[in-house]
Amino acid sequence: MKPLLLALALAFLSTLSAADKKLIVMIAGKPSHGPAQHEHNAGVQLLKKCLEQNSAEKLEIKFHLNGEWPTQEELSKADSVVIYSDGGGGHPALQEDRLAQLDKEMRRGCGFLTLHYAVEPTIAKGNKEFIDWMGGAFEINWSVNPHWDASFKEFPAHPISSGVKPFSTNDEWYFHMRFRGGLQGVTPILSDVAPDSTMSRPDGDHSGNPAVRDSVKNKEKQHVAWACKREGGGRGFGFTGGHYHKGWANNDQRKLVLNAILWTAHIDVPTAGVESAVTEADLTANLDLKPGQGLPEKVKKDKKAK
C-alpha cells in the first residue's frame, strides 16, 4: 500500500510541477539570405538551449522550424509566442487565418515577441495587430533597414534590462518604427542616434523617406528594441537586430532577448538577467544548408570532386 501511495504522491507532485511551468512557443522561418544571416532555425534552437541552461525548471519550450505553424491547441496553452522569420507578405503569421488565431491568444494575455525581419507585417495585413500586440512594427515607407554600428550605453529601469551591460554591434538595425501614438504603454529598451550614413540610399519602401531623413538629421534617438504592456495584462517585445547569426555570441545582446522572452511570459527575470554561455560549436549547430556552410560531409566531398 505504501509504494502505491508514494507513486501517487510523486505523480501528483509531477503534475503540479508541470502545471507551474510556462510554455514558450518558438516559430522559426524558412532559410533566407546568405551564410550566417537570417539563421532562423539555428537562432531559435540556440535561444532555446540558452534559456534551458538556467530556467528549465520554469519553462517548457516547444519550437517549430522552417515556417511550420503550431496547432491551435498548442497556441491556446502558450504563455508567449516568439517568431524569428522573414517578414512582409511572406511572414508566417500573415498566412491563412493565423492572425485571427494569434489574436484569440493575445486577448487572453499571451505574450508576443518578434525578432529582426519578423517585426515587419504588411500595412494591409498585420500592421494594426502587431502595433496592438507589441507596441510597434516596421512599416514600409516610414521605417528603414540599414546596416550600421549601434552603441547602447544606457538602459531603462526595466526587467528586460536586468544585468545587461553597454554593448555595441554592427547589425541591420531597423529603426523609425511605427509605434503607438505617444508611445502609449511602450518602453524603448535599446536606443541610439543613427549616423548620417544610414541615409545614404535613395528613398524607397525600406531605404528612406522624408520623415526618417529629418529624424536622423535632427539626431533623434532611434528605438531598435522596445517592450509594451497591453490592456488586459499581455506583454510584447520587438527586437530589430538579429540579421547576423554571430550577434547571438554577444553576451549582452543575447541576455537582453532571453530576459525579454521570460518577461513576455510573465516570468520574473533574475536580478542579474538570464545567464547563458555559448560556444563556437553552439553557433555552428543547426545552420541552414546554404552554400558555404552547414553542408553534410558527403556534399562537401562531392563539391570538391567537381
Description:
The chain is α/β, with parallel strands linked by helices. It has one domain (17-305): Rossmann fold (3-Layer(aba) Sandwich), CATH 3.40.50. Helices cover 31% and strands 19% of the residues. The protein has nine helices and eleven strands. The protein has helices at 2-20, 40-55, 72-77, 98-107, 127-134, 210-217, 251-264, 280-284, 297-305; strands at residues 22-28, 59-64, 80-84, 111-115, 136-137, 148-152, 167-171, 178-179, 186-193, 221-229, 235-239. The strands form three sheets. It has a seven-stranded mixed sheet. It has a two-stranded antiparallel ribbon with strand order 5-8. The protein has a two-stranded antiparallel ribbon with strand order 6-7. β10 (221-229) and β11 form a beta hairpin. The longest helix is centred in the first third of the chain and has 19 residues, at 2-20. Residues 5-17 and 297-306 have low confidence and may be disordered.
Name the CATH superfamily assignment. Answer: Class I glutamine amidotransferase (GATase) domain
CATH class: Alpha Beta
As for the number of domains, it is: 1
What is the H-and-E element order? Answer: HEHEHEHEHEEEEEHEEHHH
- The residue fraction in helices comes out at 25-40%
Shape descriptor: globular
Lateral arrangement of strands in the main beta sheet: 2-1-3-4-11-10-9
Rg over CA atoms: 20 Å
Number of strands: 11
Major sheet characteristics: 7 strands, mixed
Residue share in β-strands: 15-25%
CATH topology: Rossmann fold
Number of continuous helical runs: 9
CATH architecture: 3-Layer(aba) Sandwich
Class inferred from helices and paired strands: alpha/beta
